Amino acid sequence: MAARATILFCLLAATCEGFDLQAAGVAAAGLAGEFRPTPDALGSFFSASTLGLFVGALLGGQLSDRIGRKRVLVWSIALFGVFSALTAGAWDIQSLTIARLLTGVGLGGALPNLIALAAESAAPGRRHVSVALVYAGNPLGGAVVSLVSLLIGGAHWRIIFILGGVAPLLLAPVMARYLPESAAFIALRAEAAAPSPRAQGNAARGVSAILRDGRGTWTALLWASFCLELLILYLLLNWLPLLMHEAGMTRAQASAAQIGFNFGGVLAALTLGRLLEGGGRNLTILITFLSMPLLIWALARAPVEQAPMFAIVFLLGCAVLAAQAFLYAQAPRGYPTPIRGIGVGAAIAVGRLGSVIGPKLGGALKSAGHSSSQLLLDLLPIVVLGSVCALWLAFHRMRPGVAD
User: Does 194 reside within a domain?
Assistant: First the structure.
């Protein structure tokens, strides 16, 4: 029962996080019409929350190994709720960017703990399923915010950030009361209170342990995969509606396509968790990472017609967000409980460098005069490199000596 409650709360928190993470992208058309930012300033606005995520993931992961997953998660959710609500009161693009930066710190602190709690509460043989289910909340929240944007129209973009703040502020006190702390963390604290040689060894290793005991190569591959895959994801999340609008779609059609992108991600994440626990693991991983560059190329070359573009965007959402679900499911498996928070947090933080670069790269390419089609083709080398790193990571995890 405690495990189910943990997964439910983590799923709700991930949905709030997904709503807020994509709020900037779906509100972009409305706020751009009000503030008239340059493409570079808009790219900075998109990247601000992910820069905060970098800081928050490092701090949140490290703190959770010291004071507990639950406590850090609850405070992080409250923090991003407060600053998301304050974003609605911004008066220019600079104040918007600062508010998004501070929101990102809370978002970053929440994510490593959502993943660690889901992994540590799951029964053996169910960790992929549990982490993938929790991660499915992220694109689900993205689909909800896209739907809200479609219903209210671009001129009312502030409502998006108000909703993005109120929901986590309502959820945080409920989680503080009812969310169970990680049983693995409680056992670790009990062990630390009566130190054994094993506990003393864990304490002595500290943060540097994420690179020791055969974890160095795997950690490097995990970091590279997160960085490259998040670069692509966040560039698409923030720029895809504008790119599709520029290509000839109406804003309503572009928002609907973004909803399809996210629902594709929800479906893929839920399916992926089960497939990774079964005999189709290798084929699933291959299809996921080989399809990404093919779908990016297909979207760049697709005719500006609603049906084919919607289909490609839906499949692209399946591939890109399944790739993320795979990485989040793998991250906690490589680290023991004493360093799981900082291990996952460091991987997510490094990944956030990619999510900062992605929107800025989109802004730079648009400022240089690249069309929507050309911008997508420019991404292909990055997509291919990210797929190679992730496939290498998957292969390396199968090798003896890299223990869960």
Answer: no
Per-residue pLDDT tens for 59-73?
887 788 788 888 889
Q: Are 133 and 266 in contact (CB under 8 A)?
A: no
Task: Note whether residue 197 is domain-resident.
Answer: no
Residue numbers of the domain that contains 302:
2-186+209-397
**CATH number of domain containing 144:** 1.20.1250.20
Helix (H) or strand (E) holding 139: helix 127-152
Nearest to 104 by CA among 57, 166, 162, 173: 57
Question: What is the rounded CA–CA span in Å between residue 229 and residue 321?
Answer: 9
Q: How far apart are CA 259 and CA 370, in angstroms?
A: 25
Looking at the 3D structure of the chain, how many domains does it have? 1
- Per residue in 337-387, pLDDT (tens digit) is 778 888 888 888 888 788 778 878 888 888 888 888 888 899 999 999 999
Enter the pTM of the model.
Answer: 0.75
Closest-CA residue to 25 (of 142, 121, 134, 169): 142
